[in-house]
Amino acid sequence: MSVFDWHRHFSPLLQHLDSIGYQDWSHQLVTQLEHKFEDNPHGDIPRWLTAYQSLPDIAGATGRLDQPTVALESPSPLTAEQQAQLEQGLRGLMPWRKGPFEFFGTHIDTEWRSDWKWDRVAPHLADLQGRTILDVGCGSGYHCWRMAGAGAQRVVGIDPGLLFLFQFLSVKRYLGDVPVDLVPIRMEDLPGKLELFDTTFSMGVLYHRRSPLDHLLELKGTLRRGGELVLETLVVDGPEGYSLMPEDRYGQMRNVWFLPSCPTLLRWLDRTGFRNARVVDVSETTTEEQRRTDWMRFNSLADFLDPDDPGKTIEGYPGPKRATLIAEKP
Ligand SMILES: Nc1ncnc2c1ncn2[C@@H]1O[C@H](C[S@+](CC[C@H]([NH3+])C(=O)[O-])CC(=O)[O-])[C@@H](O)[C@H]1O
Which residues does carboxy-S-adenosyl-L-methionine bind (predicted)? Predict the structure, then answer.
């Protein structure tokens, strides 16, 4: 038996999938979750679970999901004891990378200002009102909450990082049975042709995939006809056809494969069968957007850039620049 009662957390989603005719997917998820939490549990789960379970119960909590800081609020101020319990529990879930969040007045200054990314992406999206959304590589689920705040009917985030799951649940536990879920699986663990989602996001994932074209095809398989893909990834300057493959690490990150130019990305989207692909934003990532904080005390972007030329990574590659592209599935 797992110490983590995963059935309780995932049963609303599994039941929903059954109710809309996606029993095959829900059965597959049960097998994957059993494996993850019972057959082969991550060694840190007991510690994260203890931190999560130590968070205080707070009556009447509500969420503000439509503003830069995803915030939990309570009708009356917390007692000093509740405040201390809260801070200790949240500290037990460090490092906090994607956010910001505020838990009843306790502000979590995360490594990333993920709200800046949302501000760059959101103006270009088809209205999220009433949509069913997949967020691939969703991290702590910060953007999933913003999607819900923009009116999405249901949001499924997937990310294999289990600390992210406990950070996500520490928000969700105060919001009750909201139709927002984080499932700890990889893109490759989804069934091939779900054709379920109105919008699928892949932000910060493509460069981690050894086979970026297969990633695009997998993303296409998640969308219904006419659905929208939102792709955000690291890019480099260069002509159509160009893409950079780092020799080893890029900005100290392992597992970085292809950094295409924007024209190359457009070609990839076209060749994988998307239509109307367009670049809606290109921005350099700054050390204001990604930095060490009190809630993420390890090295961050400033440590990964060349100290003599911050326009370059420490390995001598062009500094991080990200593009957002939008395309439709025909
Ligand atoms: N194969 C995979 N399948 C699913 N997730 C994966 C995979 N490989 C890596 N990830 C996950 O993708 C996320 C990438 S971070 C972007 C977070 C958010 N989207 C953001 O835009 O701020 C970008 C970064 O920090 O490099 C991580 O949480 C990985 O666990």
Answer: 98, 112, 117, 137, 187-188, 203, 207, 322
* Atom 10 of ligand 1, nearest CA residue: 137
The residue whose C-alpha atom lies closest to atom 28 belonging to ligand 1 is 139
Q: Identify whether the C-beta of residue 55 lies closer than 8 Å to the C-beta of residue 78.
A: no
Dist CA 281 CA 193 (whole Å): 29
Whether the CB of 114 sits within 6 Å of ligand 1? yes
CB 133 near ligand 1, within 6 Å: no
Cβ–Cβ contacts within 10 Å for residue 19, how many?
10
CB of 136 shorter than 6 A to ligand 1: yes
Burial of 149 (0-12, 13-18, 19+ CB in 10 A): middle
- Tell me the residue length of the chain: 330
User: E strand or H helix at 43, and its extent?
Assistant: none
Q: Amino acid identity of 56?
A: P
Tell me the CA–centroid distance for residue 195 and ligand 1, in Å. 22
Residue type, 243: S
The Å distance, Cα 202 to ligand 1 centre, comes to: 8
The answer on whether 117 is annotated among ligand-binding residues is yes
| Residue 188 marked ligand-binding | yes
Strands 98-99 and 70-73: unpaired
Q: Is 322 annotated as a binding residue?
A: yes
Question: Which residue's CA lies nearest to atom 13 of ligand 1?
Answer: 137
pLDDT digits (tens, 9 = 90+) for 112-145: 999 999 999 999 999 999 999 999 999 999 999 9
Residue 291 marked ligand-binding: no
The residues with which 183 forms a beta bridge, in sequence order, are 158
Closest CA to 318 of 209, 235, 218: 235
User: Whose C-alpha lies nearest to ligand 1, atom 15?
Assistant: 204
pLDDT at 292 over 70: yes
The percentage of residues in the chain with a pLDDT greater than 90, rounded to a whole number, is 98
Q: Tell whether ipTM is more than 0.95.
A: yes
Task: Extract the tokens encoding 306.
Answer: 């060349």
Predicted TM-score (pTM) of this structure? 0.98
